[in-house]
Amino acid sequence: MKKKICFAAALAIAITTVFAYFMILPASLTGKVVSFEPDEIYPMFLCPCCGQPLDKENICCGMAEEMIDYIDAQIAAGLSGNDVIIKTAERFGINSVIEPERERIAAELARRNPGLPDEKISFSSAVGEKAPDFTLESIEGSVKLSDYLGKNIVLFFNEGSMCYPACWNQMAELGSDERLNNDDTVSFSIVTDQKSEWKSIISRVPKLSEAKILFDTTRTVSSSYDVLNLKSSMHPGSYPGHTYFVIDKQGVIRYTLDDPKMAIWNDRLSAELKNL
């Protein structure tokens, strides 16, 4: 009888210990997002301009105001604090999250978006490297980079809707140039905006209708291609600037260009494609 009681007591202690372990295990290891109150959410994100945590009582610029308005809208819609954090990170990118929370939230974003790339390259040594695979939404549907093996690929990472007219002009020219869009070659413009925003833009600016636009709303692909902190970015860490990759038919990066002057580079891109 004593043995049975001792065994039962030991089993109860073991179960309690295991339960307590998982209850207090850091969220970064369990993959779960801990609960946050609304007032705790704002300072979890950084202003794209000054890099300081958001302060609802001291809004430093228009971009900080945009982020705070977005958070307010998600809270008003009745989302939990956890979901507000995830949606805000998706909208403004993982680099908008303060450093202590970034890894954990990045893991949750990856769990919710399994089509995002695991690999990461360095822009300065990207030539000769395998291009990280990814799946992103386009206006028409999903696009997976590896589905285009056998074709040459041009990727143009840019600031998107806020970058008018320079990025808009390059996107339009990239989409309409037959040298960069044919049986052997496809060209994509990658932005961090929402699809709905570009549907509205295209309805008003028909010359953009031929642009093949991909939506990297989480900035995960931009981060994997190391384009968020280059010289062309006007908002380092938060938005790409004006950056190009030429990828060959085997999926290997053969040419890169980052242009702070934000010019149109179709002729150079065409020349590089001819060298493949």
Describe the structure.
- The chain is of the alpha/beta class and 276 residues long.
- It has 2 domains: 31-112, no CATH class; 123-274, 3-Layer(aba) Sandwich (Glutaredoxin), CATH 3.40.30.10.
- Helices cover 39% and strands 13% of the residues.
- It is built from 10 helices and 7 strands.
- The protein has helices at residues 2-24, 27-30, 38-41, 62-76, 81-92, 99-112, 166-176, 195-204, 220-224, 266-274; strands spanning 135-138, 142-144, 152-158, 185-191, 213-215, 242-247, 253-258.
- Strand 3 (152-158), helix 7 (166-176) and strand 4 (185-191) form a beta-alpha-beta unit.
- It is globular, with a radius of gyration of 23 Å.
- The termini are far apart.
What is the gist of this entry?
It contains ten helices and seven strands.
Explain the layout of strands and helices.
Elements: H1 2-24, H2 27-30, H3 38-41, H4 62-76, H5 81-92, H6 99-112, E1 135-138, E2 142-144, E3 152-158, H7 166-176, E4 185-191, H8 195-204, E5 213-215, H9 220-224, E6 242-247, E7 253-258, H10 266-274
Parallel strand pairs: 3-4, 4-5
Antiparallel strand pairs: 1-2, 1-5, 3-6, 6-7
Helix pairs in contact: 4-5
